[in-house]
Predict the 3D structure of the following.
Amino acid sequence: MTESSTSSATVSRRGFLKASGAAAASLGLAGVAGMTTTSGWLAPAGAAPAEHVARTYHQSHCGGMCSLACTVRDGRMVKVEPNGVGNLDFRTICLKGISEVAHVYGKGRVQSPLKRAGERGSGQFEPISWDQALDEIAAHIKETQAAYGRDSIMVVATAEADFGFLAPMLGAQTGGFDGIDVGTGNGLDPAMGFGSGYAMCAPEARDWQRSKLVLTVGSNYCESSLPNCFTFFDAKEAGAHMVTVDPHYSTTASKSDEWIPIEPGTDAALFLGMTTHIIDENLVDAEFMAQHTSLPFLVDAESGLLIRDHEEAADAEEPETGEQNPFFVIDPATGAAAAHTQCASPALSGTVEVNGRRAVTAWDLLQDTQRPYTLEWAAEVTGIPAERIAALAEEYAEGPSSLALGWGGNDKMTNADIAGHAAAVLAAVTGNVAKPGAGIGVYVGQSYNSYAAPLGAWELPEDWKTAASEVSIYDMPFKENNCHAAIFCGDIVAQHLANMNETCAWADTLDFIVTMDPYFTEGAKWSDYILPCTSRFEYDEPFGNVKAGYSQIVIQEKIIDPLFEARTDLWIQRELAQRLGIEGGIPASSVERCEAILATSEEEWVSSLTVEDIADNGAVWPVPDREVIREVVPDKVFPTVSGRMEVYYDAMVPFGQELPQWEPCEEIADEALRAQFPLQLTNTRTRFRIHNQFYDSDWLQLMYEPLVMLNPADMESRGLATGDVVRVYNDRGSFKVHAAANSAIRPGSVRIYEAATADYTVEGNLQSVTNNTMIKRGYDLMCGPVIPFSDTLVEIEKA
């Protein structure tokens, strides 16, 4: 264990950001004052510098995971550029990656372990040594678990954090579902049988080149998938008709052949209206429906449940397959019910008796439930002319068509699952799935839907297991639970949860909170201890980690030594484990971890690789046969219970959503509330950030700082001008930020990029106003309810 020399000076967050050379003394960096500021680190190098190039991968959270080549001169990183090896598609970088040359040395870095010196949320901390921090944290863990049990500790890690050993070694809970990015997938993925609740069931975006229509709804692909947006333009050049449906004139809308504006929160109504028109005009793919969907399956007319051969045992560990427990269909040859496994061409329509009970096909029920959703109804709800919905439906039905859904738009509405379900039905009735040029789901981030290298894993001790989370983190402020302390790897308090005032009140009840992060975030202000982690560019060994990237394996080489007093993920976990007497399960080195991840793969081409092999190949190893466009279920055998696309949801029968039924959003459709707070607030993603990351980047701050964008008409009616400081408020809270007129914004809506926090706004946090209503139906969805960040109403006034 290493003891570091620190002073006891108290450091505020504002002072932390603004300090320059003086910060060296207060953070225990005496003698290296020039290293605490960007200007000090980026001063011109002396003569005859020592120089080398090393490679690492960038952020995984955007789905790019670009492999980067980094030039190091005299021990500091001076240039970041694409790693020019392998397929041209892999040689990508965006402005966030380029900015890392300054960002890793920036003013937002946590430079030493910090201990709270004021009230939670005050941002008052004092620097302490690593030994003191880890000793005290270990003591708190022991005390808390002795009093309340092992699951009284919660460990929550973001996608960028490499702290995979922490929760199992502590026996901690992990916060259950997180309610983020699962709105659409909750409705779509049960039909597809895969996607993990995140709608990641699409083929890769290169498939768009084979589409006649690429319909983008609720996604801003060209903004949030920068390293891969060439696929959008490749498809356009190949002749695909690129149509974007979005409330605002987004970046993707501006690059499309056509933009169709829509009322926020009404994507489900659009899909329902399109489906009705397709049924009415007999534009359906009857063969696909009969052979590859659950629409021929028989439903008990009284209970509304699908009829199967026998009732499953309540204590069954896994659901029975369709072979073990068949569904029933109508055999057109006999007109009688038959097991679906015994009928090659079932009837789509009909009514029969099964065991004395009347049964009807799911297809007939769908036709009945669709009748209210006429073109005229859909036009009134969505604001899209009926004739345009009809033409769009006809073009989509002709196919092959791709339906590109997304995160950050309608996905963050209370009715997002209905939109996902309605989209699944739309694809099912037209057969626009499981064939070239026809897909559905989220295409953003090519590392999510390209070929995935099947990596293995480090084997944990048998007694290292995470505990079940009986209550998900978003419900912990309101429901009884056993979480008494939290370790956050990343910004959870301010980035992952809505209605921040309630979140912070809950955080203040915990016995202790630890944040582990390279950067000082808003959520860190509520911590008792902050531990500085290394960035993706720093390590204390030749190799840090290995990941499956965009159709390739990528490795993290050491670019530079850990900056300030930052430590690697493995070092922190190992040191903490030693203090708890459980260090035996953690790799002795990161190289050992990497080699195990490769060697334990079930694929020989991966298990035969070594880290050195990948390094010698330019730090990337492409997936074999990547030239072939990745498709999903090309054999049309879906990984569902029946092997078909299952669009009838038994689990939703209690809520009347076994087939998608329109429900408006909880808040933005509340006319009484809208009279008080007339503007819908959407917080969207931007090319300048990855969620809350890069807000502290000096370079990117030159291009964008938080502001709320309004339509000029809404600005004028409130007497506002671009540049004014405004107060954005509702009955949950408020924040202050600069305003800007933007004709791309839909009247009645306002837009701000996500993660606008108090150190970068004029005052307060965006999450102070966002909606944390959890719908009852959500708890029966596959990933729990979605947090409806954008189902939020506000008013805006000049501050």
Notes: Residues 1-43 have pLDDT under 50 and may be disordered. The two ends are 51 Å apart (CA to CA).
